[in-house]
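pipeline/complex-builder :: batch 7 item 3
reading input block
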Amino acid sequence: MPVPDFSARPPAEEGTGVRLEGISKRFGKFAVFDGIELEVHPGELFSLVGPSGSGKTTLLRIIAGLEAQDSGHVYIGGKKVDSLGPAKRNVGMVFQDYALYPNKTVMENIASPLMVKGAKRAEAIKEAAEMAALLDIGETVDRRPGQISGGQQQRVALARALVKKPDVFLLDEPFSNLDAQLRFSSRKFLKDVQRRFGITTIYVTHDQSEALSISDRVAVVGKGSVHQVGTPKEIYASPADEFTATFIGSPPLNVLTVTVAGGASSPLFIPVDGLKDGEYRVGIRPESIALGSGPNGAEVTALEFAGRETIVYLKVGGVELRGVVQDAGGLQIGGKARFAVQPGAVRVLAGGER
Amino acid sequence: MSRLGDALASRVFYLPAAAYLVAFALVPLLLSVALSAPSSDLGSYVRLFQLTDFPEVVYNTLFFSLGTAVAALLVGTAFAIFVDSRRRGRRVFSLVAYLPYMIPFTASALIWATLFNPGYGPIDPILKSVGLPIVDWMGPSLQLYSLTLVSVWTAIPLAFLIVLAGLTSVPKQVKEAAGVDGMGMWDYYSSVALPLAKGAVVTAFLMTMILAFGNFDLPFILSGAGGVPPATMATLVVYAYAEMFYVGLSSQGLAAAVFLALIASIPGLLLVRTTLGRPGEGKARLRVPHPRLPRLPESPFRYLIYAVVALVSVFILFPVYWMFLVAFRPQALDYLLPPVIYPTKIITGVFLSTVRQATPEIITTFAVACAVTAVTVLLAAPAAYTIARDGRRALLGVMIYVFSLPSIVFVYGAFYIIASLKLLNTWAALILTEPLFTIPFVVWTMSNFYNSLPRQYEEAALVDGYSRVRAFFSVVMPLARPGLIAAGMVAFIFSWHLLLFPLVLSQTPWSFGFPPVGSNTVTTFAILFDPDSTGGTLSNNVWTQLASSGIILAIPVIVLSLVAQGYLLKGLYSGGTKG
């Protein structure tokens, strides 16, 4: 998909920040969140990532004003917006199913927020046409949402959200209905659009690789609390807890319990430099398992071909581990393999003292 | 059970219902048409069209039906918008809008007859207290409007339910997107929700119009339950009835009935077209232009809706309140000046004695309704199934068309058949003829229900080696049980409601013998108290008894329709907003 030329647009302005202060929400007896604190900086692309049921969409809907929090405050641009409805918060939102008005043409869909604000029809149409051209859907404007492709529908939803020049741009899993190819190009497209407009963007997804690839910063949400906030690199390299560690990365981190005694460890030999004796919960990235030689002997239980690499399932001393190799030649299911854990790759998640 | 081929199985499913409809719909219909022109020169039609009152009767019929449809649609839509746009109070206001549906037509008409009573009716003092002039509701100049008003009262629930089903099937995200875009109530309903619910709006309009075209109970009772109705309020239905069964000019009455059936076929066929032409099935649905509406200021629209809902709520609630008030108060309060409209003393004696008096009728109506329900479900459930699964859309079209024809066009033929079977004035007469009304409706709603059932279960059963018939009975029927139960309740309510057929086919109350002889129903019992009637046999104008029999009529319907409410909503109009 060609990326449109944004040079016609004025340079990005300073965006507006969003702050959540002690947000709590319950549905009946079930507490979704208790005291969430978050700060989204002006102009950044911020992701809320977590498994389904973690409450990330509810959090987005609270920011939009579609859902009311039970306590706490939402600030947009330093202004408390708790009492304002969604229309008054000047947010643009892209829904998971796009929520285009099926009875209106693409043009009418995009112009709709302007018309509602009281713009003259001719003016609204002109601005909508510009936006449609910008997002490369200019040729679809006379059709209805049911008559265009999923990728185009998604761009119409982006256009409708952006045309009113919102202070904050909210996206709820916007790519989950697209096929893998289209999702890939749409990510880049969104990133470009966001850069160009310099608009503060909050993005909800369950796909951690998507979050890592497009975000300036990421908040990992699980079971109603924020586990970690940071840049994709920070989150990946130094997960703050076991939840984040296992959720981020593909294939996921190996988490196991090791006992360190007298400079050696069991059931797995790991570099124990600086670890005192005791029991530890540790995380080891699959790519830090160096197959070929080393102190550990394991049985290969499964091989999963993943294109560029192969995921190797290993069993050692009753523990299942995942490793990755570029070339799985020589490995066989049921066969033996030796491996070492690379120095510095072990992340202690809990237990013992360093 | 033997294994049956696909085509054969499909026939097994729909043939019983089809055979029934041939015997009790097609044959009576053809009889009516044939007997309407006995001398094959259309003389009865010519005489009918030459009658001096005829243009007025046709005008009354059109005014009554169109007026009912337009007003009920406007009010029902206002109510549906109100309920759809609110977070709180949805249930209460839904129940208010639904209330008239729980009062059978016969009871509604009787209650309204007392409300309209000049002098002793409770409307006069209410009008007077707010400074409005008193009018003679049933006088020659107003009675058509009064009749239509009552008809609107009875039609609001249907219009409300269908439009609400359309509005609530707009995807939630679309509604939220409208909120984020800053759309107000008017913006959202005028430019998004109502255009999307267009199919529902059209269906509601056609349904209310069709029911008004065929409505016998209201004009019959309000024009005096017997005798020749005054031309100022006679509709074609009551005119035809009077000619057939009172005056004895059956061919002329039949000509009027056939003429009415032709008029009612217009909305009937349009309804067939809208229903069969759902998008995605490759048929053209009814095209309705949707005008580009101007933007209205937000708050006046909101207040307009609130005002309509408030006013109409009073309009809906008062007659029901009045029915209970009158039934449980001493008879002596009926004819006081000025009329008493507040509860003063509550007694249950008259109500209980009315129940005792109506016991044979209650037993008859109950037994007949149960039998009709059983027959209906047995015949309609398989037919609906084959419509849903084998795509027999034409059969569905026939069902909807039969449903839309006025009952008056079948009644003479049915009388003829029942009389030649020597079954007049028996339970069997009613049990045989009433499924004519219940089967088409239940087939229609049940086919929507089956459409919403996943096919995988039956497919799994077929893969496992079941025959289609066996898969239907041992896999589909158990899954469809909630739908079948609800369909049964709807059939029961329909049967319980009926007035015209019992009136024609029954003569005396059941005599507690076996086989049952005498088949008067609760509806035919209640109309004996019609205050406008000249030929009532019981001590006339006893409002306490009138209201009591109204309550007897209403109670089973209230109970069942509270249970079946969700089903009706789903069945009549299921999700037509896609596309």
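note: Chain A touches chain B at residues 64, 66, 85-88, 91-93, 95-104, 112-113, 116-117, 146, 160, 164 (CB under 8 Å).
queue -> next item
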